[in-house]
Amino acid sequence: MSASKPSLKLSLYLLLSVLLFASTPAKSAETLAKTVEFPSKDGLTITGEVYRPSGLSTTVIVLFHQAGSSRGEYRAIAPELVKLGYMVLAIDQRAGETFGGVPNETNQEAVMADKKTGYTDAIPDMKAAVGYARKDLSAKRVAVWGSSYSASLVLVLAGQDKDFADAVLSFSPGEYFRGKPAVGAAAKSIKVPTFITSARKEITKWKPIFDVIPEGVEAVGFIPRAIGRHGSSALLPVNSPKTQAYWEEVKEFLKAHVPVLDKKKVKVAQ
Asked: Domains along the chain?
């Protein structure tokens, strides 16, 4: 029966190994992200978080949050995009407050500086973030991603400036600004691949905007079968059956229109 002793020792060793592994905390989104700061046009300091993939990527997805929110809105979403190979920048716009216990530091700076914090006041912050992605993160291609009010603003900015972004993802846009600016009017000039979705009950808010995107532009409007949720929260929680359809559509759009590596703009050693 002596042969049973080594087996017992091995079993105990394996058990201890499993317990040790289980007690080791997994890396959170916060530990994966690097906090960055850069100025908006008016000098306001913008706080953001950069998530980098392990491999080479020449594309940056810039994430903008919804009203009353912060970069914390993307603490679970950004790592999923990194898994696809993208570099990701999530920022705090001055129009926001907190999300998931993550305060909006740009908003706090704006309030202290007595600056306006309305929805459209965030436009310079969004432009600065794209500029930071192109210059400081060396992005050859930038996809912009908006949630609620920022979903409308990414459509406006893409329509106003063909060089603003190379692709647009817009979650729950609408005419939130009383025509100043008019989202539909700007959408008529969009020239880049565009993805729009929302909760099911919100379709009527963005369908008129989607319909005026010019013929020839790769535009995808996803209408969920389920109830869905407002803004980028439609993707939360990331591993839920309730969000699977959204994730599948997003991934399909990114794969088709937002390459991780722009082979025309970078040479890769063979």
From this structure: 27-257 (3.40.50.1820)
- Answer with the residue of higher pLDDT: 101 or 264: 101
- Residue 194, strand partner residues: 168, 219
Report the predicted TM-score, pTM, of the whole model to 2 decimal places. Answer: 0.87
- The one-letter code for the residue type at 167 is A
Q: Are strands 167-171 and 141-147 parallel, antiparallel or unpaired?
A: parallel
- State CA 152 to chain mean position distance: 14
Q: Which long-range contacts (CB under 8 A, 24 or more apart) does 260-268 make?
A: 260/53, 260/57, 260/58, 260/59, 260/84, 260/85, 260/86, 261/56, 261/57, 261/58, 261/59, 261/85, 262/58, 262/59, 262/140, 262/141, 265/58, 265/140, 265/141, 266/56, 266/58, 266/140, 268/56
Average pLDDT, the chain: 89
Chain centre distance of CA 26: 22
The answer to whether 267 touches 56, Cβ cutoff 8 Å, is no
**Contact predicate 30/74, CB 8 Å:** no
Using one digit for the tens of pLDDT, what is the confidence trace for 99-139?
Answer: 999 999 999 999 999 999 999 999 999 999 999 999 999 99
Check residue 87 and report its DSSP letter.
E
Among left, alpha and beta (phi > 0; psi -120 to 50; other), residue 110 is alpha
On whether the CB atoms of residues 32 and 49 are closer than 8 A, the answer is: no
CB 259 within 8 A of CB 227: no
